[in-house]
Amino acid sequence: MATPRKQLKLGHMIEGAGRTWTDWRHPDAQPGASTDFAYYAESARLAEQGKFDFLFIADSLSINAKSSPHYLNRFEPVTILSALAAVTQHIGLTATITVSYTEPFNLARQLASLDHISGGRAGWNVVTSWLEGTAENFSKSEHLAHDVRYRLAAEYLDVVQGLWDSWEDGALVHDKASGVFFDPDKLNTLGHKGEFLSVKGPLNIARSRQGQPVIFQAGASEDGRNFAAKRADAIFVGDSALQDAQAYYADVKARAAGFGRDPDKLFILPALAPIIGSTEAEAEARWQERAELVSIEAALGMLGRGFNDHDFSVYDVNAPFPDVFTKGFNSSQSATVKIAKAVQEENLTLRQVALRFATPRGNFVGTPEQIADKFEQWLDAKGSDGFVIGQALPGQFKLLVEEVIPILQRRGIYREDYEGSTFRDNLGLDVPTNRYTAAKVARAVA
Ligand SMILES: Cc1cc2nc3c(=O)[nH]c(=O)nc-3n(C[C@H](O)[C@H](O)[C@H](O)COP(=O)(O)O)c2cc1C
Which CATH code is given to the segment(s) 9-281+363-445? Predict the structure, then answer.
């Protein structure tokens, strides 16, 4: 029998009004979709039809007049995912929640609730927030520095995962005859006091069928990569050329191995939004149609968001890109580095940078067969373990599910059906052992 081939992991990122500042202007776009439950439910139904591993709801907590349409008016992730849990059966449900502006007790409780509501399908994308203006919405005078945010993230994740283990398996006895509701020996108090956090516990909700929610991260900087390689089950990464993706993949997997982990239990998932046409020419025409929705003014506004709201409209757009990189470093550091590299290597003008980053074309424009070829190539060439897929234009995600997924299935690199009932089952990840149970077992053995 032939050895089974490595399987792609796929997620779907739902961005109602569109991925960019201008996608909403497409004739078929639904500008109000970011707060339209029916739109989300239909996207979830399609993703489950396509046997996707998970849905992903990204988030941030600071808007201004320059924010993109989807950011301006959208659902809170855990709330929408809880509703989607009720209309789906198999798919994982991953929410972004920031460690910089959320109490760990609340976060642990919300995600544990989602995990129970969904029968063990919750995931958490651990972010530190890249928009500096967020501090002003949370009674804070300043946004923490990039490296401090990652130190906080590490401590925070310890606390949340510790809280999730508060109740050991079998703790809730519910014995009506004896009147024993729970076994106090199996209820544990965290008692955490650290550099940033002081959390006693226990948490007021037990573990779900998958033990703990699946951990996602999207670190791209040095600090980010180490954190993700050490702690995450899956890592999001921006779209890039295959060669760069391979370098990132090799680097992060090596770091994971260095931390004593099995690199195959850490999934690297670039974000992309394929543009599919029945012919190559049709796909290219669709890409052009999307690019033409962008004005240079919108592109400059979008660029400014990652540079602490720097006003790029004051420069000559046809002159070389201005030296303002320091403004981006405390925000999304890796995106700023990427821009700096492109500017240096290709001597780009401000106009070129703004338009390129406003609607990145990406590597995935073509026929269903060509998109499937690329997915397979990236999987085989260790560029990724799968992808988190957004929708570039209305109808494109449906095309992907109906036309690309069957090709991947025929090639034996994608599931025909869900393997299990929890998110961890479907990713092939073990249920994490409860730390308190493990400690008791270790003490008993010693
Ligand atoms: C696919 C993808 C999704 C992301 N989703 C979010 C998000 O929902 N919220 C957020 O604040 N940052 C998000 N980020 C940004 C990361 O949290 C991080 O700031 C970024 O990758 C830069 O990494 P660095 O801080 O290590 O430089 C995302 C990044 C990627 C690649």
Answer: 3.20.20.30
